Amino acid sequence: MYISASRAADGARPRSRLSWAVPGNVLALGTVSLVTDISSEMVTAVLPLYLTLSLGLNLLQFGLLDGLSFGVTALVRLAGGNLADRWQRRKLVAGVGYGLSALCKPALLAAGGSVAALGAVIAVDRTGKGLRTAPRDALISLSVPPDGLGQAFGVHRAMDTFGALLGPLVAFAVLMGTGGAYDAVFVVSFCVAVLGVLLMVMYVRDQRMPLPGPRSATSPRAAFGLLREAAFRRVCVVAAALGLVTLSDAFVYLLLQKRGGFGAEYFPLLPIGTAAVYLLLAVPVGRLADRVGRIPVFLAGHVALIAAYLVLIGPGWLVAVLALQGVFYAATDGVLMAVAGPMLPAHLRTSGLALLQTGQATARLFSSVLFGAVWTVWGSTQGLAAMAAGLAVCVLGAWSVVRRHA
């Protein structure tokens, strides 16, 4: 059964007292994400400079590679989500995704300076992320009562973000200790990623739900049929529209480095500011969303992102931009999954979340390529102004749609 549109869109329970208890499976998945994010953020923290300074890629080439990461994820998520539901093996599909991403860390070294080879490695890495994200989020949503989803996703995202905070620090330490050797960062990242896979295998429990009928109940056609539900369709459209005018973190950090003029060796530290704010706010914002409504909190996060773009256009205060980015993630990442989860039947939970995430990822593919082209031709200020204006229009439009149909 689907939850009614008003409850699904809002998700608030103002008169109930929400429990602080978090199931062990959520904590196990959070630990896996924590360790994996240390590994992935080590690479993410150095990759923009590695590609643009070390290998000499221009901004359009970088935008294409950055967009590719979103595009491949979009293509794989639907297939991975459907397989996880069809087999009722969400842990297995997620584990394969974690394993693929781990193998890509040393493969970056083998790719050398070839744009095609780098694109292939990034594509495989994003394939791993695409496979694991929806099954992982489905496991969380199936392990928690509906009225505690905001808190549960907040706890998971807080643990995930703690890893994201540690990753750049580890990368910085490795670079400082090796005299700027990027290959050492990739090797250490691989070792940490393997630990994450082992934790997944040993401690995460699968959540299998009996199918309500034949295998066709979890077919791709049944998954796309979820879009016939008006409430879920509106959430997908809103998420995709907002993703189309959302800059990737890589571009934000490149802009901060360009305008701040600080040394390249400090670049890996930039994500720490965002991660620290996200870590502090993920759980309280998740609980707030459970109480006052998830959609308003989700849209408020995008308002914070508009403010970050305006600061970046103007004075470019580094701390303010990173803090606003952190607020954005705390109010949107897990909250969006908490919005959508109760709208979806258990046997199609992974497919539905994958469908939602695919729309976002596809939109961000176009966003990265477009911004890379605009920066190359007209400059970063014009690109930022266009993104801020587009985001403001989309937030107003989204609120109008949600308010009318809630």
UniProtKB/TrEMBL annotation:
Gene Ontology molecular functions = transmembrane transporter activity
SUPFAM superfamilies per record = MFS general substrate transporter
Localization terms from the record: Cell membrane
List UniProt keywords, sorted A-Z: Membrane, Transmembrane, Transmembrane helix
Matching CDD domains: MFS_MJ1317_like (cd17370)
Q: Which InterPro entries match?
A: MFS, MFS_dom, MFS_trans_sf
Major facilitator superfamily (MFS) profile domain span: 25-406
Q: What is this protein called?
A: MFS transporter
- What species is given as this protein's source? Streptosporangium minutum
